[in-house]
Amino acid sequence: MPVDDVLLDCEMHMEKAIEHLQHELRSIRTGRATPALVEDIRVEYYGSPTPLKSIASISVPEATQLLIKPFTPQDIKAIEKAINDSKIGLSPHSDGRQIRLMLPPLSQERRLQLAGQCKGFAETAKIAIRNARRDGNKILDTEKKGGVITEDDDKHGKEQVQELTKQYETKVDELIEKKRNEILQV
To answer: Which strand (E) or helix (H) includes residue 153?
Structure first.
């Protein structure tokens, strides 16, 4: 496998780690309501767990309120149960046709907990990036031992893999700092 292919493979894995981190961060609550808070909650729908966004429309009528309108009114009870069972800490208010979720203001303690949760997601992403680096370096070593690439190519390839690692770890830090500022902003 040529050095360029190893680098592309590494970069692809690192990019996936960043995408996963962004998905995780969308589900963390800041001071504003966003459909991402509830859209992946699993609702028992005809015997199988289904994401909420598949069986209802989710909108944000106000900055601190979510409005969930099921496509079929019979699903309201199942949606309420799923929201209560989830760990988002919001209680649903139903009028028979739609469900409202009121987001209370975040306390400073809760803001700090959420910021800590972001830090945990960042560590997981960095571990995935470092694992991609390790795998890339292993492939380069194997190729060098097999005589496919020269020692200079191996050294240069490992330097490039390390540069990629630093670049993606910086992206993780930037994403986390941005989200942390959103959370801690009152």
So the answer is: helix 151-184
